[in-house]
Structures are given as structure tokens and as C-alpha cells.
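Lecture 7 notes. Example A: sequence first, then its C-alpha cells.
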Amino acid sequence: MQELYYAQLQSEQDDARALFHDMSKRMKAMKALVRENSTKEANLLLEETQCLYENLGTVVDVGNPIISAILNEYKDKAAKESISFTFSVSVPPQLNLSAVDCYIILGNTLDNAIEGALSTAEVDRKIHLQLRQHQGTLFYKLENSCTKSHTIRKRNKSHGYGLQNVNKCIEKYHGEMITSYANGIFTFTSQMSCGLCEMDRTF
């Protein structure tokens, strides 16, 4: 995940450098076209330049490479499904959660959030993630649009291994998780100790 994150970041930086290196040439070309009253060609060049700028990579960097890699992956997944994905993250560069546990917790809950959002009309699809560490405790909250019928259907299914695995991970860090549904929004919240997990204490 970290290798993918750094590759994405490098690609974005390379694209940005290439565009800004080319920008002065594009500006001179547009000025020349305007002087020659070739406004149609100038507008086409302006539109092309604007399109290149808007399509620059938007790699997420929250200061923690593992969390950044996970957010990048799910940002792309959400975008492909026309889901608005916003987040507020404040965590140190290193968490006392293993990369595997981070991915189990965030990955499973984000998979569920995307599935839930897809049960709603495209205009209503949204996910909002909050992740913060404060005084040795990691707080995680994930909200997503969802239909009531979808939550009932999920609750009646017997394959809820994803949340079971999430709960096991959270319990390792002396935490707990709570889920709720109201007004078209499904909410997952948890808090975990950033101290040693139970597995670490056995060594």
C-alpha cells in the first residue's frame, strides 16, 4: 500500500512539473492567437489547458502513508461509483496499529459504506470519514447514505464476516464499535487505545 501511495504521489508530481513547464509556452501561444484574432483557436487551447490542469492527480496525503494509501484507494473506488467521499483526518505519521489492522478496520467499513451508498439515488450518494487521535485514543467515525431496506437486508444476511473481523481488531486495542441508522444515514463509530494491543502485551 505504501509503495502504491508513493508511486501515485510521484506520478502526480511528475504530471504537475510537466504541465507547469509547458504553461509558459501555452500562454505565449494563446497571446499570439489573440493578436491574430484567432479567438476560436485560442479558446480551444485554453479549454485544453484547463482540462489538463483539472485532470492532474489528486493524491491524498494526510501525513500517515498507510492511512493515505487506504484513502487513495477508496477515493478512487467512490469516484467510479459517483459517490461523494469527504474526510477529516488528524493522525501522527505512525500509529500503534499494524498496517493489516488499519486495512481491516478502514477497508471493511469503507467497503460497507460504498455498498450502502450505492443503494441510494446517485444524487444522494455520500460518505464522510473522520479519524483523529487524541491523548492516546484513536477515534473513528464513518457515515454513509443508505436506504433502510438495505440495512435490514444486510442485517438478515449471515455473511457479516467483515464487521466481525473489524470488531476483533478493535477489541485487540481495547476498543468498541457502535453502529446506528437514522434519517438515511448509516453511522459506524469506534474508539481504540493507541497503547499496546492485547497481542503485544503477551510478549
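Example B, a different protein, same format:
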Amino acid sequence: MNIKQAKQEITNTLRAYLTRDELGNYLIPSVRQRPVLLMGPPGIGKTQIMEQIAAETGVGLVSYTITHHTRQSAMGLPFIEKRTYGGEEFSVTEYTMSEILGAVYHLMESTGKKEGILFLDEINCVSETLAPMMLQFLQCKTFGNQRLPEGWLIVAAGNPPEYNRSVREFDVVTLDRVKRIDVTEDFSVWKEYALRSGLHGAVISYLDIRKEDFYRVETTVDGIQFVTARGWEDLSEMIYAYERLGLRVDRDVVGQYLQMPRIAKDFANYLELYYKYQRTYHVEEVLQGTWQAVNASELGAAPFDEKLSVMGLLLSRLNEMARNTRYQDELTAALHGALTTFKEKIVDQTPDQVLKLLLWQRREALKQAKEAGHQGKEARSRAQREIQVLEDYRQRLTAEEITNAETAMDRVRTWFREEVEKRQTLGDDTGRCFDNAFRFLEAAVGQGQELVIFVTEITAGYNTSWFVEEFGCDAYFRHNRDLLFDDTRHRLREEIAAAKAAEEELR
């Protein structure tokens, strides 16, 4: 299955394991709660889906790359304890708490989350001395004489032998005690993630054209060469950073992330073309509606790959603007909730005291989310923006020496309206850019298949589809309606043709 399906299956497994009966006991006893063994190529998002599952289900997450551990850190250190058996005293070996189990208990204490996921990466690459301990843990959920708390799902991830020479095969006894999920790379699923996360437009549009270059692992005379989803994402981050610094991303930089020379060279050349198209077609002018007719004519006469690249440029900017609008929408909603509480609390406390309390609660929630393993960049950024705005409100009230509850509420309402207006301004500006992009493409390619692709990409993109749903876009709805009509007409033609063929056979 692909990584999206694997995520859903693990989520379902977690929910099943944490379901309790009418007496409060786990519906599936702990002894029958098999660990999940997630097997798949490196760099396809196995670790990331664990963070997403934990955040979405509200459980804790403890992650370990098991190859970084020794037998002692995993099992604990031995010490001698005195025990009396049958009236005679004996020296017996006990163990300090396992570092891994200790991390689970620490998270439970620091966050109050009693249920969670223990994620052990590279499980089949452990050292020879640690391997027996890990097999025991998968089978019995214990290290030495210490047991993993109830309510914790073990998810172990590994790579198939063709991707790692140091892997160890699991025996039948172990495999018969785990729930195995095999994951394969899938560009369409990764693209959904890439669009939502805002990966660089050059990466997405290149892979749209060269889907076969998304994930490759080859053994050559020069050694193993590979390109992974992780490599593309990390390269995207570096491209953004280099652009901000005014630096050039050349073939050498690309090759540090895409460790397959042919693909690295191909993408580096494409990136140069991407920047060239950006300059040639004046993408920002297109979005602002000030493009020249000659640019539309040039695009109309350009090769199909070039058209796709230019559409990729437009979609990348539209996705970025839609994402910024969504962020502001979420910030506005969060601030509305905070200010509702502010209004209720300032009856009994000073405005400064209430804002300090709200800030403390949100900082603690952010800290606990980090400790619980909910490290999503988007959620963290959203929380930080809310904290920043609330702190700004507090400082402004202090600077203006406002202590009266009614006056403070009036001032905060005024500042909050600025955030609401910013949301509307972003929505209006983004909407105009959507309309201008459609106008430009209509002038360049008419009602060709390129517009079908453009509409489909907007529908598939998390941020762009959210924007259209929330703010509307007449051009999108018009073309989408035409597309649906064409699909229906095509389907009816096929059905009529099939009916005619069946009638001929009966004759």
C-alpha cells in the first residue's frame, strides 16, 4: 500500500487497540495487541506519518532510531540486588530502566498523556548484540524485567534488504507476532503532501513531467545511486533558502540531495529553465493582470513541456498565496477564541493578568505538543503566530497604560479587526490572482487540455481547493462545470457506443 493508506491503517489499528469495553478494559487485551511492522523504502515519509497520527489522535509519540542504541541503553544497566528465597539470601541481577521505556514514562509524566505510540526506526538494522533484545521486545513488549505500559502501540519501521545491506531477516516466531504493513513509494500521494506543505514549484512541476524520477535506487559500477522523497523535500528547503540569500542553486548543490548524477543534472537544467520561464513570461505581472499579449502568444506557441512548466509557476504562486490566506484565516479564528475568553475574564482580573494567563496557557500547550511528539511545522507555526499577536496586544495595552476593562476590550477589538481586514485583503488579492491566471491561460491556450490540467491541479491542491471553497472563483467554477459536462458527454457517448455494439451482436 502507499504511505497514505499505511497512515490510515495504523490510525485504525491505534483506535482499535485503545477502545475499551463497558468495564473499562481494553477491548483487545495487551497481549493480543500486535506491534506494527512498517516495511518500505527509505525516505518515503514513515517517520512523518507517525507525527501526524499522534497529533491527529491526541496521543503521545516517542521516536527512536534504534541503530543509535547499544544493548545497555535499550535494556538498561545491570546492578546486583539482594533477594531472599526460602529463607536464604541470594544476589540477583536487576537492570536500571531502559532509556527507551524511560522516555515513554517521562512523556507520560510531563504531558499527562497515558496512551501513545512508540516508534522504533531501522528495526532490522540493529547491532548483533542488540538484536535479541529487540526481538524479545517485539514479542513480549519487555526489556529485561520492565514492560511497556498498556495503551502504547509499538510501530517498528525497517527497509527491505535491497535498500540496506545490513538488514536482518526476522524469524517466523517474530513475524507471527507482528502486524506487517508493506509500503511502496507513490508520487500522487506524495504530491498531495508536497502541495500542502508548500514545496518549491520547480520540484513539483519537474516531477509532474518526470514522474519516473521521483524515487529511484540503482546499483551501478560506481556504487549505489538513489533519489528519494526525502531528498526532494530537503532540496526544496535549500532552494528556498538560496533564493532568499540571492544564491544560485547549481548542479553541485542539487547533486548533494539527488544522489543520482543523471537526475541531478536533468533537474539542475530544468531549474535554470524554470527561472528563465519566470523571467520570460513575467509571472508576477500575469497574476497582477498586467501581462502583455505577446507573452500569451509566446506561451500558446510553446512546446507542451514549456506550457506545463509555466502552469507550474502559476500554480506554485497561487498555492503560496492560498496557503498564506489559510494561515491568516486560522489565526483569525484562534484569536477570536482567545478574545472571547479575554472578554469573560477581564470582569474579575486586570487585562494584563488575563493576557498573561492566555499566553502562559498557549506556551504550555506548545511545549507539551513538542514533548508529546506533535512536531508538525504548520501547527507549530500557527500556535507561534497566535502567541506573537497576543503578546503584541499585551505590550500595546501596557504602553498605553490601559487598565480599565471596557477600554481594554475596545482597543483589543480594534486591533483584532485589523487581523480580520488582513484576512479579507489577502482573500481579495488572491482571488484576483486566480482570475488573472485563468484570463492569461485562456488567451494563451484557449479551451485546450492545458486548462483542464490547470483546473484539475487546483482541485487536487489542498490550499488552492480550500481557497476556492472559502472565497470562490468564478473562472474556476466555469471551467470545472465545462469539464464535468465534457466528462458526462464522453461517458454517455461510450455508453451509447457500447449499447450499439451489444445490439449488433444480438442481430
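Note on Example B: Residues 304-345 form the longest helix (42 residues). The chain has a mean pLDDT of 84.
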